[in-house]
Amino acid sequence: MTLTIRPDDLSGDAVQELLAEHLADMHATSPPESVHPLDLDGLRDAAVTFYAAWLDDVLMGCGALKELGDGHAEIKSMRTSSHARGRGVGGELLLFLLAEAGRRGIRRVSLETGVEPYFAPARRMYARHGFTECPPFGSYRVDPNSVFMTRTL
Description:
Elements: E1 4-7, H1 13-29, H2 40-43, E2 48-55, E3 58-69, E4 72-80, H3 89-103, E5 108-114, H4 120-128, E6 132-133, E7 146-152
Parallel strand pairs: 4-5
Antiparallel strand pairs: 1-2, 2-3, 3-4, 5-7, 6-7
């Protein structure tokens, strides 16, 4: 499978539907105070670059890089479409984001995910790609429902 991963302006229906599904799942899975995804306006922030992964004209997933300053970025809104799960889309998208971060001179990439079993596949994928648990970063605070992970590039 060869994905086309490119910046996206968040205006298309497929992207908006995938992000709405992402937000709904986060709210259904985690307590409200532990839900940290960006909404559409947050993803349009100048510090954020949003990417969509396509197989021909089918949206397979998405993810974003949020630059935090001092050579540090955060991965946000990583999501694989339900029809694409188990096909390696998440891993391919993650490798793309890491390569893009490296091209920008970012030296450290971090993320926040949940502790619930729902998030276990994501945590395993991040660990396979060199992420290790770390303390909260940026504006995050200690949260028993969050796992913070980081890796250097």
